[in-house]
UniProtKB/TrEMBL annotation:
Positions of modified residues (S-(dipyrrolylmethanemethyl)cysteine): 238
Upper taxonomic lineage: Bacteria, Bacillati, Bacillota, Hydrogenispora
Organism from which the protein derives: Hydrogenispora ethanolica
Gene giving rise to this polypeptide: hemC
Signal peptide start and end residues: none
The protein's name in its UniProt record: Porphobilinogen deaminase
InterPro entries the UniProt entry points to: HemC, Porphobilin_deaminase_N, Porphobilinogen_deaminase_C, Porphobilinogen_deaminase_C_sf
Length: 300
């Protein structure tokens, strides 16, 4: 008899696409799968800002509660939505292959990706704003809420001239034709974990090894561990705009970049380090220490 698993996820189109990616892999590995959608606080309260501490955990708390209560067996998340400190009794069991982590500029259909001065660009991320406004100060950056489909609709209705969104989500939704340009990692460093789908389970979950074997991508796991340790070490209750990206090389080394800015974007630091892929957390912590030694705690 095949083991039966219930997967919990948000109900947005992107969340369901991501969950089905995991579900299909698990079905191929011999599991029977049911998907249960869960409405999160972030989905209900569209008026809340996602910036700073207000946005932490908004899209995962209800799913984690269902997991702890045994209503679901595992949860599928966008890794960048998960706080670095998980709820007690829960852990990450696998990381799916990373999609393109870069940021994309989306424009209205048929519009020129070269925007006019004063163009209004919508994004929910202060991290994106502080990086892009240094390169493109002639644009206005305004906060936007809603899932990707909602944001695109708001742009098409004229509320925004363009949007900056994670390219990973755009690709998974099949909306690449809306992309006006893709920002390089030198221009805009992504959020820690951006583009990675993570699977969360209870600590006592009995099928972890089978789950790991069916779903886990080693390169994504190493990057996730380094980036989340970087974020954790920079924590301490201070929510500055932070970017991080790590990738494995063919020589058994990890290359990692980090970015930290103040909330106004007047001070912005970037740095990179290399380390062994046998110790991704050590690399993330070492890179964080470099920023801490530069006095970023005084920016909070």
């Amino acid at each position: 008899m095949k083991p039966y698993l219930t997967i919990g996820t948000r109900g947005s189109r992107l969340a369901l696409i991501q969950t089905r990616l995991a579900a299909e892999r698990l079905q191929q590995a011999g599991f029977e799968i049911t998907i249960k959608t869960i409405l999160t606080e972030g989905d209900r309260k569209q008026h809340l800002s996602l910036r700073g501490t207000a946005g932490v955990g908004l899209f995962v708390r209800e799913i984690e509660r269902a997991l702890l209560a045994g209503e679901i067996d595992l949860a599928v998340h966008s890794l960048k939505d998960l706080p670095v400190d998980l709820a007690p009794g829960l852990q990450l069991a696998a990381y799916l292959r990373r999609e393109d982590p870069r940021e994309a500029l989306l424009t209205a259909r048929g519009s020129d990706p070269v925007l006019r001065p004063g163009a209004v660009i919508g994004t929910s991320s202060l991290r994106r704003v502080v990086q892009l406004q240094t390169l493109y100060p002639a644009y206005q950056y305004r906060e936007i809420r809603g899932n990707i489909d909602t944001r695109i609709r708001k742009m098409d209705q004229g509320e925004y001239d363009a949007l900056v969104l994670a390219l990973a989500g755009i690709k998974r939704l099949g909306a690449e034709e809306r992309v006006g340009r893709i920002y390089s990692l030198d221009e805009c460093l992504p959020a820690a974990g951006q583009g990675i789908i993570a699977v969360q389970v209870r600590a006592d979950f009995s099928l972890q090894s089978r789950l790991y074997g069916a779903l886990n991508d080693r390169a994504a796991e190493l990057a996730a561990r380094a980036e989340r340790q970087f974020l954790k070490r920079l924590g301490g209750g201070c929510r500055l705009p932070i970017g991080a990206f790590a990738e494995s090389g063919p020589d058994g080394r990890l290359a990692m970049r980090g970015m930290v800015a103040d909330s106004a974007g007047t001070r912005l630091l970037r740095h990179h380090m290399n380390g062994s892929d046998a110790a991704p957390e050590e690399l993330g912590a070492a890179l964080a220490e470099w920023f801490l030694e530069k006095g970023i705690v005084d920016w909070c």
